[in-house]
Amino acid sequence: MAGQQQALHTQSLAELAKGLSKGEFSSRELIETLLSRIEEHDRSLNAFISVTADQALAVADASDKARSKGEAGTLAGLPIVYKDIFCTKGVLTTCGSRILENFVSPYDATVVERLSSAGAVMLGKTNMDEFAMGSSSETSYFGPVRNPWDTVRSPGGSSGGSAAAVAARLTPAGTGTDTGGSIRQPAALTNTVGLKPTYGRVSRYGMVAFASSLDQAGVITRTAEDAAMLLSVMAGFDERDSTSVDHPVPDYVSGLTVSLKELKIGVVRQHFDAGLNEQCAARVKDALNVLEQQGASLIEVDLPNLDLSVPTYYVVAPAECSSNLSRFDGVRFGYRADGAKDLLDLYRRSRGDGFGAEVKRRIMTGTYVLSAGYYDAYYLKAQKVRQLISQDFKNAFEKVDVIAGPTTPTPTFPLGEKTDDPITMYLNDIYTIGANLAGLPGISVPCGFVDDLPVGLQLVGPHFAEETILACAHQYQQLTDWHQRCPEAYQ
Amino acid sequence: MSLSKEQVQHIAALACLQLDEDEFDDIVAKLSSIVDFVDQLQQVPTDDVVPMAHPLDQVQRLRPDVVTETNERDAFQANAPAIQDGFYLVPKVIE
Amino acid sequence: MNSAWEVVIGLELHTQLATSSKIFSGASTAYGAEPNTQACLVDLGYPGVLPVLNAEVVRMACKFGLAINAKVASRCVFARKNYFYPDLPKGYQISQYELPIVYDGELMIKDDRGEDKRIGITRAHLEEDAGKSIHEGLNQSSGIDLNRAGTPLLEIVSEPDMRSAKEAVAFMRKIHSIVRYLEISDGNMQEGSFRCDANVSVRPHGQEKLGTRSELKNLNSFRFVEKAINFEIKRQINILEDGGEVAQETRLYDSDRDETRSMRSKEEANDYRYFPDPDLLPVVLDDAFIAEVKKTLPELPDAKQARFVEQYALKPSDAAILTVSRAVADYFEATVAEFKDNPKTAANWITGELSAALHRDGMEITDSKIAPADLAALLSRIQDGTISGKIAKEVFEAMWTGGGGANEIIETRGLRQITDSSAIEKIVDAVIAANPDQVKQYRAGKVKVLGFFVGQVMKETGGKANPGQVNEVLKRRLRKG
Predict the structure, then answer these.
(1) Does residue C194 sit in helix, strand or coil?
(2) How far is CA C132 from CA A189, C16, C145, in A?
(3) What residues of A are labeled active site?
(4) Minimum CA–CA partner of A358 in chain B
(5) What average pLDDT does range C171-182 have in this prediction?
(6) C421-479: which CATH topology?
């Protein structure tokens, strides 16, 4: 196909890496292409809070220069976007919140540090639900993100900016964080791949905390192969995070082709209960059949406490967030209300004005469930139910290697539809939350469309089984082309 | 409505959040519905269940007692809304 | 307080642990730096940063637990204590709540009658210190300095076992002595390394139910602890005797006015919403670790005191003074290692001259200008009669001000005692001859006049004569006549 090079913005990271190493194009060309696409398309999406064009071009040039001397890291010259929850030195880091609207981080998150030292080029910081609290990317102080498949609809959330940018081919890859589904759900709703690794697999240092025992950094890409490439760099022990796990990091890319022949895939009876859109169920069943044809066996399993995962989550996550967000007080950084008459007034107004409605609701919920007289009934109870849910997964993984099912109960929904009803919004995460409560790795892969809107297949594995779910997702993508589809306006 | 206005006021005070009047009514309603929703946990028998605080059964790692940080006050205070003579400023605290 | 009321006191002692770096960060804990120059991202509670526990802090807490015969938890957990205050950057303090590292300990003190009394120690838990606020010199603002934020603290909580301010102070002194023996804290109260809160209540004698307590804060010296508690006891008894009720509250001790006063009560802020810190994992200590730490325990004050009484035949009261601090005890033992003849003399000199000189110059014994071996040399010269105790004090002063070693000073200043009896007899005869009136008085039976003659002879010899010898010669010569 000499002279008929595939457009740069449509290529995957793996393809771009090859092109760069063969000298088919320079990193500068690649980065310029994507920056101009961001310039052109982000008006319709609002996927970015900051675009770091000058910095990106400088890094691209340096990368090209290094490459000419034969020095190139695994991700040298390749583009990446960061969800605006990752601290980036010298760059605005807002978490989608007014309270951090002027916050320039003096340090890099470990994830950023690792990707940068592998040579990745940051294009910008992506929009998100404020402090990652939301499933629609609408709670951002910087306005909602729009879904490239239908811009009156939500891309999901909270990592909706990264998902929309990857889906619209503004970048091949972006980071996200997943506390209750915030990577997998937007991936499913935008026809992208979203990987949430095992809790502790990737360092949380420099990732602004929402719920510390649930948060995990991951990636949104268009292929499982790209997710594997990035995870190989991001994963690993970090002495600055006490919850980071000192466990060897395999080469996730070389594990992608492990045979699925003997694989036992669990199909959860409770996943197909009422609540799951029938057409979504059909797409997921089609996908399961594809895997079965590769020699995997489908085995029915039970997660009897699945229904309890949402209420459990909405005790644990707000409790942790109410405490994690106490540091935002207008004293050392961030928004500070003017003309406070005393200290308490300063705190209350800085926080009252600085946080948006959803964040305030969660802080209030969390404060309530931890308060005197309610701790045992709510917080402690939720921690016990969390144990039951985790045990359900352990039991299931005694029978199967992965669990497969829908990522979300429905395709994406119009912006504004659920903002006034938190419970309905929360229930959108019913299939994803369990993996966070139990700390399991999960991935969402495009598996078809319902009324021209994307649907995702979720694969969840036992702790540290990233290789298995990535192999499964990768081989599924080799047999299907859903992920190749691009929304028309962004081709 | 499972939460009273007084309860919500108390929670807002604990959380140090100023809530506007219209915002306040909304939050009373929504917080109540959230509390009603999570109340379903009360039905679950959990007598012998050990509470789970962390997803992995790991223990705390210990750091050697070594000073690794240097003075970066200027860089850190670049983000501060009000400083003087190296101090962070807040409205006068009377005790 | 010999009234119908029984006083009940429990103490909370906040001990800063003497680590180089902070409990959860790599910032320095050194005292006295410019504001906020030792506050790193973790100490400032920056978004995204995380705590990692300092190993030394765990070792020190474990050491303390073993020293007070307590249980060291095989598994302990850090919890967040949530409240808003400007010196608390994260809006929560990382502390321990349900599962502290040390629990069920005890300590013996002397009660008001001098009897041994056991004081229970409920627990000792690890936590981070807060920063400091200053309220002067910044116009309408208070200034926040977070250098102290994150300094490791061991909070030691006693049972309400003390029945007087004196017992409370005795307990506090004992803990102070132990943490310094263990070298886990410098115990410097001026710098806030050792701070005390006291829970005080009173109840009618014989009543089982505890009275309502108040919590006294800001007790930053042993003296203030005693004064504040005594003030508070009187205040509470007065209220109760007037038919009133004591309010449960936090009270601040004002040392200038010697009174306690209520801190503006923030009732709402008292719901701390403790929960396990999700950023930190359970700390698990196995028997091997605890055994290792046990090996590093020094001899503790009580054991040392008993040994000093036994080994050096000291009075228990002298042994107690010498063993309050490990440095003093070490000094004593280093001295008697070189001066074996009379440990009692060594004890007297250390608790007397040396202690006074150190106090006068505001020095610690470890910085003493006279080393133990040098003091031993001086004491040996007293023991072998080269100089008198009186002259020795002069030599000591010279040594203190840098005049050299004892022997050198004695020789160059000619301070050697006159032991030649013919020389002394000569001087005695001269004194007798010069004071006929006094001789008459003595011979008339007024033996007290002997002191006058001794004084005169010592004056003539510049204090160098051996007083015993002088006495003996004088008596002999005066008898004649």
Answers:
(1) strand
(2) 49, 15, 5
(3) 83, 158, 182
(4) B27
(5) 96
(6) Arc Repressor Mutant, subunit A (1.10.10)
A53 and A174 assigned to the same domain? yes
d(CA C29, CA A339): 35
Give the whole-angstrom CA distance, residue C169 versus residue C183.
Answer: 21
* Token pair recorded at residue A350: 């800085």
pLDDT at residue A491 in the model: 92
The reply to whether residue B81 touches residue A382, judged by beta carbons under 8 angstroms, is: no
A150 domain residue, yes or no: yes
- Same domain, yes or no, for A126 and A205? yes
What's the gap in Å between the CA of A280 and the closest CA on chain B? 26
Q: How far is A172 from chain B (nearest CA, A)?
A: 31
Is A378 in contact with A239 (CB distance < 8 Å)?
no
Tell me, yes or no, whether A240 and A320 share the same domain: no
**In-domain check, residue A452:** yes
The total of structural domains in chain A comes to: 2
- Does A447 lie in the same domain as A369? no
Same domain, yes or no, for A161 and A258? yes
**Domain contains A285:** no
Give the span between the Cα atoms of B69 and C22, in whole angstroms.
10
For residue range A52-89, list pLDDT tens digits in order.
999 999 999 999 999 999 988 899 999 999 999 999 99
Residue C140: closest C-alpha in chain A: A342
Do the Cβ atoms of C20 and B68 come within 8 Å?
A: no
Domain assignment of residue A292, yes or no: no
Mutate to test the interface with B, among C20, C31, C36, C140 (most CBs of B within 10 A): C36
pLDDT of C264: 62
| Mean of pLDDT values over B60-82 | 97
Host domain of residue A341: 307-383
Residues of A in contact with C51 (CB under 8 A): 242
The label of the residue with tokens 């008929």 reads A4
Smallest CA–CA distance from A214 into chain C, residue = C278
Flag whether residue A367 sits within 8 Å of chain B, measured between CB atoms.
yes
Among A383, A411, A431, identify where a domain stops.
A383
- A387 and B51 in contact by Cβ < 8 A? yes
Same domain assignment for residues A205 and A141: yes
Residue ending a domain, choose from A383, A401, A431 = A383
Q: What is the pLDDT of residue A2?
A: 44
**Nearest CB partner across the interface for C48, out of A209, A242, A371:** A209
C439: its two tokens: 């001789």
Quick check: A289 pLDDT over 70?
yes
Tell me which amino acid residue C473 is. Answer: V
| Sequential DSSP letters for A123-191 | EEEE--SGGG--SSS---TT----BTTBTTB---SSSHHHHHHHHTTS-SEEEEE-SSSTTHHHHHHHT
Q: Where are the domains of chain C?
A: 5-292, 301-412, 421-479
- Interface with A, mutate which of B52, B60, B73, B95 (most A CBs under 10 A): B52
Q: Do C246 and C240 meet the contact criterion of CB atoms below 8 Å apart? A: yes
Closest alpha carbon within chain B to C45: B76
Measure CB to CB from residue B59 to each of C56, C141, C281 and give the nearest one. Answer: C281
d(CA A346, CA A331): 9
Contact between chains at C143 and B69 (C-beta distance less than 8 A): no
Domains of chain B listed by start with CATH number = 5-43 (1.10.20.60)
**Mean pLDDT lowest for which of A475-489, C135-149, C408-422?**
C408-422
Strand ranges in A357-452 using DSSP code E only, listed in sequence order: 402-406, 442-450
Alpha-carbon gap, residue A123 to A39, rounded angstroms: 11
Q: Tell me, what CATH number does A160's domain have?
A: 3.90.1300.10
C97-118 confidence digits (pLDDT tens) = 999 999 999 999 999 888 999 9
Q: Binning pLDDT at 50, 70 and 90, where does residue C1 land?
A: very low
Smallest CA–CA separation between B61 and chain A, in Å? 6
Evaluate whether ipTM surpasses 0.85: yes
